[in-house]
Amino acid sequence: AAPIPSIGGIPLKYVSLVTLAVQNSMLTIIMHYSRVSIPSSRMYSAATAVLMNEVLKGSISLFIAFCRIEPSSSAEPSVLISLRPRVFMSKFRKLSRDIFSTDCWKLSIPAVLYVIQNNLQYVAASNLPAATFQVSYQMKILTTAAFSVVMLRKKLTSLQWVSLLALAIGVGIVQIQSGVAAHHGSSLELSTMNASKGFLAVVAACFTSGLAGVYFEMVLKNSQADLWVRNVQLSLFSLLPCLAHIVFSDSAAVSFGSSGWFSSLFSNFGLWAWATVLVQVLGGLVTAMVIKYSDNILKGFATSLSIVISFLASVALFDFRMTWPFIIGSAVVLNATWMYNQHPQRVRIVTGRDLKA
Ligand code: C5P
C-alpha cells in the first residue's frame, strides 16, 4: 500500500483539516473587516480579488506540480538538476501534456462554480455580521450531502439525515437575530449592510460550494492525475469567468473609461485586500488537499470548528453582541455537525463505467 503522506509524523489529513479550520475563521474575519471598515467610495474590487486569488493559487500549484515531476533522464534526485536546460524542458513538456490532457475540460465546471461562489462570498461578507455569515455558510454541509447522495451515490444513515435537518433549523434560528446584531454594529456597518441580500448570497454560495466540491472530488478520485495538475487546470479555467466578471461588472465598466484599466483594477487594493486574497489562496490549496486526503463531508466538520474561533474573535473585534437565538442556533449547528460525523459511511466513488451508464 502507498505510504500515507504526513508532515512531522502527523498524517496530512489531520494537518490539512486543522489548517482549514484556522484558515476559515481568519478568512471570515479579515474579509468582513476589509469590506465593512472602509467607506464604499474607497472599496476595492471583489472581482479583482477573485482574479488575483486564482492567479496566485494557479502559480503556486504550477510550481509544486513542476517540482513533483521526476526527471526521467537522470537518477540523481537533486533539485538543481531540474535547472539544466535539457531536464527543465523535458519536465516542462511532460507537465504541459498533463495539464492540457484530453479530460482537462472536466475542471471547467467546478472552475466556473467556484468563481461564482468566491464572488458571492464577498457579497455575503459585506452584508452580514462575520459570525452570522459563518454560521449560515454551514448550510453547505446540507448541499454537499445532497450532491454526494446524487452524484457519488453516497448512502446516509438516518442519524445523518436528522442531523442535516437540525443543521437547517440551527441556521434558521441564527438568522432570527441577524437583523438585531446589525443594529449593534458601527454606523458605517449599519449604513452598508443588507441582511437579506447577504443571506441570499450565502444560500447561493452554499449550492455552488456543494456542487463544485463534490464534482471536484469525483474528478480527482476517478483519475490518476496529480492533485496539483488538477489545481492548475481549475485555475486556468477560472481565468475566463474572472475576467468576464471584471469587464461586465458595472463599477469596473464605469471606471475603465476614466483611468487606465490596470489602475482601476487595483484602485483601493490595499493591505487588507491583499490579506484577504492571501488567506483565500491558502484556503484554496488546503481545501484541495482536504478533498483529496479525506472528503467533502469532513471538510464541513473542519469549517464548523472554525465557528467557535470566529465567534470569539467577532465579539472581541467587532463588538458583536451574542443574543440567545444566536447562542442556541450556533449550538444546534455545532451539535448537528458532530452528530453527522458519527460513524460516517464509506463513500462509494463512482467509476468511469458508472459515469458512462
Ligand atoms: O466553501 P468551500 O469549502 O466550498 O470553498 C472552497 C474554496 O476553495 C473556494 O474558494 C475554491 O475556490 C477553493 N478551491 C480551490 N481549489 C480546489 C478546491 C477548492 O481553490 N481544488
Automatic annotation (TrEMBL):
Name its cellular compartments: Membrane
Q: Which UniProt keywords apply?
A: Membrane, Transmembrane, Transmembrane helix
Decide whether keyword Transmembrane is in the record.
Answer: yes
Predominant place of localization = membrane
Query: Topology in the membrane?
Result: Multi-pass membrane protein
Membrane-traversing stretches: 161-178, 198-216, 228-249, 269-291, 298-318, 324-341
Name under which the protein is recorded: Nucleotide-sugar transporter-domain-containing protein
Q: What is the lineage of its organism?
A: Eukaryota, Fungi, Dikarya, Basidiomycota, Agaricomycotina
Span within the full-length protein is 11 to 367 of 424
